[in-house]
Design goal:
Keywords: Membrane, Transmembrane, Transmembrane helix. The protein is α/β, with parallel strands linked by helices. It has two domains: 179 residues, Alpha-Beta Complex (Spore Coat Polysaccharide Biosynthesis Protein SpsA, Chain A); 157 residues. It has 14 helices and 19 strands. Strands 11-12-13-15-16-17-19-18 form an eight-stranded mixed sheet. Strands 3-2-1-4-7-6-8 form a seven-stranded mixed sheet. The chain has a two-stranded antiparallel sheet with strand order 5-10. Helix 4 runs parallel beside helix 12 and helix 6 packs across helix 9.
Length: 475
């Protein structure tokens, strides 16, 4: 074979462009038809097969557990007959007869008992009061009450916020072992006792399996840790042996503080309010009331309208001519107006109106604080307003806050332009939609707000969800 013939035989064939395009289009159509027929066959197979329909139904209706609610929680309150009569009013603030389950565990049987409180039980005697109270979770577990997922422990002067508690516990798998609470606010207390312990006055929650494990070894554990000071230390030591660490929730508040806790409550973390404690050791949380119980009723009444929003802080800014104001709202409790611009990183830090529990120190807390200017520097102090009224609207709430001083004002007055205009504001009015408790299952985010000054010297604030891409900035 000569060279020209070989060249002719080996020369590749390239179809004309029009013909190639036609071939490719036909191949693509054939592939798509085949894919459609295959998809239809698979679809019909799964939906006509009697073997697979029950499995699909199980996932859709599925036997998934219902969301955790109050009926799944047992509140176990440690108390004594000696202290109960002067502390029972704290329990009556939050307890809902007929809607909640739980007991007050006493050392001896009382002679009479109100139906406005949880039913009482007498706990197993112990040589030390702390050991008796440490046993309460195990004793509640031993009652084998049906449908229980969580046991929540607290003292007889602990204020709980039950709906928020249910919303928080819903985040966790109640079939796993959980020990949920928070440490003390005072460094000196945490260093003395433990940073990894749930402080009992602030309350803590124990899942059903964790309570079962605790009950299984409680007697030996309490003997081994008899030297420890409190019941909460003993419970923590027992969970350490089991191997269950503390899961921290910042809404539990031991309130190991002295003095006015206003600064703490006015700058609550972005988390649901779960508990308050030691309130009989501090002044009334609102100066509009002369007794702590009346001040607490004001907060509790607000939470009945929208408990998930209680103490949630929002910031907004008011620019009016030469005036530039920063506004902070702690819903259901207080509002603050600053006649200057403060960033969110400053506004979210509690004003230091309190001291540590043991030594009355002003520095060593487990969170940052900022100074409240002394009375001789009135131009560096914000004006503050306290909850006066709550009104439930169709889709939300309207709360009004009345101005009240700091209680230590001197003769000095601030004559700056912003302060004179701010001094005319007598009230702050806040509108807000009701907060969905299921929001606490998502990543936390502070809500946004807008503010304007009306003709009646009232600042109107509207709290709302932040828009996509929205930030809170003073400029």
């Amino acid at each position: 074979m000569d060279e020209s013939a070989m060249s002719s035989i080996c020369k590749p064939y390239f179809p004309q462009p029009e013909l190639a395009g036609k071939i490719l289009r036909r191949a693509a159509k054939a592939f798509l038809y085949a894919l459609l027929i295959l998809s239809t066959a698979v679809f019909l197979y799964f939906f006509r097969s009697t073997k697979t329909i029950p499995a699909i139904t199980l996932i859709a209706s599925g036997d998934l557990p219902s969301p955790t609610n109050l009926s799944h929680i047992i509140f176990a309150i440690g108390g004594s007959t000696k202290t109960w009569q002067r502390r029972r009013e704290y329990c009556e603030l939050w307890w809902k007869p007929g809607k909640m389950r739980g007991h007050v565990w006493l050392d001896v049987a009382p002679t009479e008992w109100p139906d406005t409180c949880p039913p009482w039980r007498v706990s197993k005697p112990a040589a030390k009061q702390a050991a008796r109270i440490a046993r309460i979770a195990a004793e509640e577990y031993g009652m084998r009450v049906e449908g229980v997922r969580w046991f929540v422990m607290g003292d007889d002067d602990t204020i709980f916020f039950p709906e928020n508690m249910a919303a928080v516990l819903e985040k966790y798998d109640h079939e796993e072992m959980y020990y949920v609470g928070a440490a003390s606010e005072s460094v000196e207390q945490d260093e003395k006792h433990s940073y990894g312990m749930a402080y009992g006055g602030g309350g803590f929650a124990v899942s059903y399996p964790a309570a079962a494990a605790l009950a299984g070894g409680i007697d030996g554990c309490l003997r081994r840790y008899d030297r420890l000071y409190g019941s909460d230390q003993r419970v923590h030591a027992c969970f350490s042996e089991i191997g269950v660490p503390l899961t921290r929730e910042p809404g539990f508040h031991q309130v190991d503080l002295r003095g006015d806790i206003y600064g703490l409550l006015a700058a609550h973390p972005i988390a649901p309010l779960l508990s308050l404690h030691h309130l009989n050791y501090v002044p009334p949380i609102s100066p509009l009331f002369h007794s702590q119980l009346k001040a607490l009723r004001s907060l509790i009444n607000a939470t009945r309208a929208d408990q998930p929003r209680a103490l949630q802080q929002s910031f907004c800014y008011l620019h009016d001519g030469r005036l530039n104001w920063s506004i902070s709202v702690s819903w259901g409790y207080t509002a603050q107006i600053y006649p200057w611009l403060l960033s969110p990183t400053e506004l979210e830090v509690p004003i230091r109106t309190f001291r540590t529990w043991k030594t009355s120190d002003i520095r060593h807390f487990t969170f940052n604080t900022r100074e409240l200017a002394v009375p001789s520097r009135p131009c560096e102090r914000p004006l503050r307003y306290f909850l006066e009224a709550v009104e439930e609207a169709k889709e939300g709430t309207v709360t009004e806050y009345r101005r009240h001083g700091w209680g230590d004002e001197g003769k000095e007055k601030c004559g700056k332009l912003g302060f004179e205009a701010m001094g005319a504001v007598k009230k702050v009015r806040v509108t807000a939609s009701r907060m969905d408790p299921m929001l606490w299952r998502k990543a936390p985010r502070r809500q946004c707000c807008g503010a304007k000054k009306n003709d009646k010297n009232i600042i109107d604030v509207h709290v709302r969800d932040c828009r996509p891409g929205e930030i809170t900035s003073p400029i």
